[in-house]
Structures are given as C-alpha cells and as structure tokens.
Amino acid sequence: MEDVAMEPDSVDLSGPEPHHRVSAAWDAVTAELVSADPSMSDRDLSDALALLSRRGLSRLLGPWLLETLQLRLSSSVVPEFWSGLHQPENELQERDRALVLLRAFRTLLDRLDPFLNGLQRLGTWQEEGRGGLSGPGPRGLRERAFTSIRALLLFSPVPVLQERVLEFYSRTFSIYMKPQGGEEGGPAAPEGSDDPQASEGGACPGCGVPAPACWCQEAMELLQELSQMLWRLQLLQWVSTEAVTSILHRLIEQRMEQHCRGEYERSFLLDFQEWLELVLGWLSKVFIGEKDGDCDGDGAAPGGPGGPGSTVLKQWRCHMHQFFCKTYVSMRIEELFSIIRDFPESKAAIEDLKFCLERTNQRQQLLSSLKSAFESRLLHPGVHTSDILTVYISAIKALRELDPSMVILHVACQPIRKYLRTRHDTVRQIVAGLTGDSEGCSDLAAELSRGDPVTLEMQDSDDEGAGPEDWTPDPTDAVPDKTGSKRRSSDIISLLVSIYGSKDIFIDEYRAVLADRLLHQLNYNTAREIRNVELLKLRFGDSHMHYCEVMLKDMADSRRINSNIREEEQRLSEEEQPPLSLSAIILSSEFWPSLKEEKLELPPVVCQAMEAYTHRYEKLKAMRTLSWKPHLGSVTLNVELEDRTLIDLTVSPIHAAIILHFQDKSSWTLEELSAQMGAPQELLHRKLALWQQHGVLREEAPGRYCVVETGSSGERLERGVMLIDSDEERDSNTTTQSEQREEKLQLFWAYIQAMLTNLDSMTLERIHSMLRMFVATGPVVTEMDVNELEAFLQRKVRDHQLIQSAGVYRLPKSN
Amino acid sequence: MKVTIQQWNGVASWLWVANDENCGICRMSFNGCCPDCKVPGDDCPLVWGQCSHCFHMHCILKWLNSQQVQQQCPMCRQEWKFKE
C-alpha cells in the first residue's frame, strides 16, 4: 500500500511480532475502516489494533484515513461531482436540472460515505480506547475531514452550482408559498398542495408547468433530501446561504415594490411580520437537516451553528427583519416628500417608518434626501406661498410624529424657513391662514383654536422635571445651538411666527388684515374676530394684542352710537327725516393701522347726511368730533333704468358717488367728473368700469360716458366680457407691509443726510452702525439689516439724491 | 335713471376738539390715551382748565395731587380751575 511512504522512521519496526503480521493487521484494519459493511469480528479487530498500538502504528490510522480521503476527493470524487452537474442533455427542463443537481450530490455522498463511516468508527474506537487507541475522537476527525471536503470541493466553485441551487430553492420556495390561499399555509401544506391545482387544469402556480406534470410534491421531497445530504456533508451553510439570502432579498424588495410603494394609508409592519413567519417555515425546510442531524451528531460540528436548528432560524429571522427595515426605510425616504404632502392620511406610513428608522442607521440619508426633495420640488418660484406653507405645516406635523426630539424637523425644514423669509407675502398668508380666510392653509385656524403653547409647553416641561431617568440625549445629528432640546418647539404657530424672528411683524400684519376685514363688513358682527383676537392673545400676550382689542371695541361702540343716532332720527318729524340712511364705523385713529388716504368729494346729499351725523355725534360726545374718510365704507343702492332695475348692489363709495353724479346729468367727460369729485382721472376711469360692466354706463366717445337707459342684455354681456379685467381689484384699505417699511426707512433718511453732511463720506457698514447707535427708537433699527439699508441707499443713488463711489456714500454737491 | 341709496356705511375717525395735538403732561396724543389707560375716548377723557389748556383727565389729576401748596396749570402756572 502506498501509505507505507508516510510511515515515519521513528516507528520501531523491530519487535516481537514479525513484519508480516504487522502488515496483515494494518491491512485488515484499514480495509475495515473504508469498507461499506464492517465484517471483522470485534476480537480480531481488537487484536489487530493492539498489535498496531504496540508497534506505535495506531496513531497513524487517523492521518492515513484523511490522506486517503483527500487523494480520493481530488483524483476522482470532485471531478465526478462537477461533471455530474454538467449534463447538457438533461438541462432542458427545470425539473431535470433539479434532478441532476440532486444526483450529483447523491453520488458525492455515496463516494464519501465509506470515509465518513470510517472516520466515525475510528473515532469511536479512539474514544473507547480500544486496543490502546487514543486520538481526537470522532468530532475532531470529522471536523478535519469536512474541512478537506469543503476545501477541495468548493475551492473553485463553478457558477453553475450556485445557479442550480438558486433555481431549485426559488422553485421550492414558490411551491411552499403557493398554497397560502386555500390551506393553512403551514409547513404541512406542500403534501396536499397539488390537488387543487390539478382540478384547475391550468399551469400549476407552484412549479409553473401544466398541472398534470406538476412536480410540486416531488420538489419538496427533493428539497428535504438535498437538505439532509448537505447537512451530512456539513455543506449546508456554504452551499445554501448565498442562494437563500439572494432569494429572500429579492422577494422582500419585490413584495415591497408591489404592496407598499405609493401606499401610505395602511401599516405594513404586521403584514410583513406574518409574511416573514411564513417564509421562515420554508427556511426551516431548507435547514431541516440541522434539526434531525443534531440528534445523531450529538451537537453540531464546529463551523455549523452551535445549537438546535431554531438558532439558525432565529438568526435568519433577525437578518430578514433587519433587511426588511432597511429596504422599507430606503423606499420611504425616496417617497418622504409625498408622504409629508398627504400627511394626516399617511400617518400609518410615518409610524412604520419611525419603527424601522429606529432599527437602521439611515437618519442622515433621510435628512439629506428630504432636504433636496424640498429644494427641488417646493422651493422654487413656481410654487404659491400658501402651498409652501401648507407643506411646511404638514411637514411639522409629520416629522413631529417621526422624530419626537424634533431634530429632523428642524434640520430638514431649515431650507423652507430660509426660503419663506424671501417671499414677501409670507406674513400675509400666515395671518390670513390664522384668521381662516385663505384657501390653502385652513389648518392654521384649527391649530390656533387647539390651545395655547404656553400651557402645552408647561406640560412638557413638567414631564421632563418629573423623571430624570426619562431624559434622552439629543440624537447625534442635532444642530448644536443655544436652544436646547427643551426649547425646541413643535408648535406650528410658534414655528411659523419665528420664521421672521419677531412677533411684531406678525402683529402689525394681523392688525392690517383685521382692519380690512372690519372695514369690509356690512354689519357690526365681530364675534369671529373677537375669538381670534382672544386666541392670539394667549399666544402673543395681552400687550401685543392691545391695539386689536381697541379696534374691536371701536366696532362695538360704533354700533351703539349708530343705534343712538338712529333712535334720535326716528323721533324727528316726517319732513325732517334725513334723505339718506347713514351709519358709520367710528375709529380711534391712533389704534388703527394707517389707512390709505384718497381724495374724494362726495355728492352734496351724502355730505349733508354726514354733517348731520357729525352734529349728532358731537351732541352725544362732548368736545369730540368726527373726521370722515369719504372713500372708505360701502354703499347699498338700487339703480332704476327705463327698462330694468338693478337692486341691492353693494359698491364702494366712489362707485356710488359716480352713479349719483350721473343721476343729475346723464353724460359726463372724465375731466368734468374728475373736477367734480376731486379724484384723479385714471382712478375714475378704473372705477367707471364697474358700471360699464353692469351695462348702466357706456363710453360713447373716448373719455365721455353716458347712461344707457335702454340696453339689450346681449350688449351688456359683451361689455362684461370685454371689461372683466378692469374690474375693481378689491385693494386693501391698509398700506402693505413693504410700504410701511419704506416709510420707516424714509424716517432714517433725515439722519443719513445729517450724518453725511457732517462726515462727508461714509461706508455702508458705518452708516448702519451709526443708525443703530443713535436712532435707538425701538425695534425698528434692529430689525433693519444691512442689505435692506443698502437697497434703500441704492434707490437714493438712482434718484440722484446720493452719490456712491469707491464703496462710500456721499451727498451730491449742491449746485 | 334713478338711484336710490338704501344704506350708506361710512367710515370716520373721532377726534377731540382741542387746540393741541398732544397732552402737555404725558406727551401722548389726545386721540390716544394717557399712559395708565388702555382705551381712548370715554374711558380716558380730556379736561379743560379756565386757562384754556387741556390735558388727559388722569394726567392733570395726578399732577394736581402731587402739588402741595397751590394748584397750578403746568403750562401757564396760573391757578388751575376746571372749566365748566
């Protein structure tokens, strides 16, 4: 035998027994070890072993066996295995390919079985110490043998093995998952699974071939066999893991794409949990050998999982769960913008995402992706401010759910806040939203009435104070700023108001909006405004809302004064009754926002009524009088023409004044009207459009208007269409925010001029800091930033009131 | 054509008939209110002295209360007497 070569020289060959006996014993024992069915009697075996031990040869038995195994593997078994896999004539059908795979493994197992048994036997002898044998025992020997098998077999695996295994596993998986519908879906399902398909007659959903040729059951049996063989060879981990992983990953991704993408209103966590359990059932089939094997292999061989099969399953469950979370988070991150946009409906998706995000490390990814989504989809000139606000509000609500520490909210929404600051109508939109009269952000009004932040935040801080153990540190991606986590507010209104960093701008804007609303009202009903003001008071404090309260009080006072005056008028005799029913809103001018001044002469009949009203007011309130704002208010009137009557038109005073003039004289030129009413011609031209639209007036020649006493409705319609764009623009009565700012800056102009007169020339920064220093008249200066001042100064330069050269400003030389 | 006005809702602002804009004591506008008040008009009226100077009522009362010896108009130093 060739093993003589490996006998070390140190072995003592000279001894009491003759050579031929030793040689015979060695042959007998080695033959016994590799033979398929042991035939030697125990006695003979023990004698032979004892003889070998005496000659010191017995410890060579293990190495010899392993060496033989290796030689056999590399010379015949491995090549046979690989060529067994390549059988082109059998590769046409999936089923045949699976059978080839199985056959290859079966052959492999057959060839290796004698050696494995031999190892087992030798190990047992060693353990029993039979014939003075000693050694690492079955476990150690087997481990070394399996290492050799793995090394020689999978040293250069051919891709075809992975392909085959993958294909076979995918098939058995789909067979396993198929009967979910009808049967219990448990591991027992495959047995009965082909019956329903056979009756259907179509292709079997499990194995994908026509029902009569269904091999589902066979496939499941093959799977079981394969698993057991692989387990016996300790190859299960190495051959299956990759295939199983890729199958599961692909399936999870597929399932996610099909079920979850674009679907935000349902939670998928439970569904997936159930599905994963089902998949685990299949896994337990794949890894079934582990469980069975554990019994006879007493514990696992090292390299395999150390415990019962459930440990493997547990690991797989963890792995799959983790993978699910990761895939889910990645998908939702892509969709987060849409989820936020749909927020109250997409709450389920947010909750799922929150659960999964806590288990993966993808916050950074989420933040950067969401930020760029905002920038590309929201923050560009094509989006209306109210839409931006609506999304911002949804984002606040959604991210508040997602991340109670508010860090994501603050970091991700920074671009929105920055962008909103550059929009001029942001404040007006927010205020309009708060008062509940804008189309877009109706949530704001609800939010306002929800409760006040002071009490809300008090609750929070109480909670924090209660348990120091409950304290959680900020996430690592928090922006370190002076406001700690405690101060990080999630109150929508506070967040919106803080966009500009100052309450005052909001209060001023609210006052303007409130003034508009009050002045446009026909009745004195202020219940809603009172409620709003009360709610705002809770947020901004009493002192800020004081002016608004006085405005509301003016409304109530006006109502009372009106009814007083009305009563007084009714006591008058018939002929003394005023020709015109006049009521008034009487303002405390100091407390209202500055109202636009427009010059307008009202017709004498109105003026008289106003004088009479003033007279009565003076009687009512000693030492006080009224100053009328003729262009403000509203008028309800009827217009009777020869063939038609317009009833209950509500128009502005200037419209009323115009039509009253036409009552006296049916044709006016623009110049005449302008002279009569003291209003600029272009304004009148615009206002005349309303009456033209109603078909009451007609421009008979350029700049000349006359009454249309009889007119066809068709003509009227045509005019309406023609003039629709010149209809009144419903401009607000209060000056806008930017106009007010302009006025404030204008205040500084005097200071700037004085500074430049004294100091000759100054840089922009110098002017700014000087203004800050000297004009400490309150919040105005601190709010003005350098850019604004620069814009203002540039305007002055354009108007030639200032000269800029080499970075400094100076006054132009007089004359 | 005949135009019938059913209702004219005008807008006016009220003001005190005084010979000055601001109260000489608190320097606040007469049409506003004195620093202690919140609401102008009826709640913070003006009063006139016989010297024809006028002040917020609350302001002049405070002033008169602080005068130990003789009660004078803070503007013209004449003896203060309310104008009836």
TrEMBL record, chain A:
Keyword Translocase applies: no
Pfam families: ANAPC2, Cullin_AB, TPR_ANAPC2
UniProt GO cellular component terms: anaphase-promoting complex
Domain Cullin family profile residue range list: 493-692
Disordered as annotated region, ranges: 180-201, 452-486
Keywords linked to the UniProt accession: Cell cycle, Cell division, Differentiation, Mitosis, Neurogenesis, Phosphoprotein, Ubl conjugation pathway
PROSITE patterns reported for this sequence: CULLIN_2
Cross-referenced InterPro entries: ANAPC2, ANAPC2_C, Cullin-like_AB, Cullin_homology, Cullin_homology_sf, TPR_ANAPC2, WH-like_DNA-bd_sf, WH_DNA-bd_sf
Domain of life from the UniProt record: Eukaryota
Pathway: Protein modification; protein ubiquitination
Protein family (similarity comment): Belongs to the cullin family.
Protein's UniProt name: Anaphase-promoting complex subunit 2
Top-level taxonomy: Eukaryota, Metazoa, Chordata, Craniata, Vertebrata
Underlying gene: anapc2
UniProtKB/TrEMBL annotation, chain B:
RING-type domain span: 34-77
InterPro entries, alphabetized: RING-box_E3_Ubiquitin_Ligase (IPR051031), RING-H2_APC11 (IPR024991), Znf_RING (IPR001841), Znf_RING/FYVE/PHD (IPR013083)
GO CC annotation: anaphase-promoting complex
Key words of the record: Cell cycle, Cell division, Metal-binding, Mitosis, Nucleus, Ubl conjugation pathway, Zinc, Zinc-finger
One annotated GO molecular function: zinc ion binding
Gene3D superfamilies: Zinc/RING finger domain, C3HC4 (zinc finger)
GO biological process, one term: anaphase-promoting complex-dependent catabolic process
Subcellular locations according to the entry: Nucleus
Lineage top rank: taxon: Eukaryota
Listed transmembrane segments: none
SUPFAM superfamilies referenced in this protein's UniProt entry, alphabetically: RING/U-box
Pathway(s) annotated for this protein in UniProt: Protein modification; protein ubiquitination
Function, in words: Together with the cullin protein ANAPC2, constitutes the catalytic component of the anaphase promoting complex/cyclosome (APC/C), a cell cycle-regulated E3 ubiquitin ligase that controls progression through mitosis and the G1 phase of the cell cycle. The APC/C complex acts by mediating ubiquitination and subsequent degradation of target proteins: it mainly mediates the formation of 'Lys-11'-linked polyubiquitin chains and, to a lower extent, the formation of 'Lys-48'- and 'Lys-63'-linked polyubiquitin chains.
PANTHER family (UniProt xref): RING BOX
Subunit and partners: The mammalian APC/C is composed at least of 14 distinct subunits ANAPC1, ANAPC2, CDC27/APC3, ANAPC4, ANAPC5, CDC16/APC6, ANAPC7, CDC23/APC8, ANAPC10, ANAPC11, CDC26/APC12, ANAPC13, ANAPC15 and ANAPC16 that assemble into a complex of at least 19 chains with a combined molecular mass of around 1.2 MDa; APC/C interacts with FZR1 and FBXO5. Interacts with the cullin domain of ANAPC2. Interacts with UBE2D2.
Family: Belongs to the RING-box family.
Name this protein carries in UniProt: Anaphase-promoting complex subunit 11
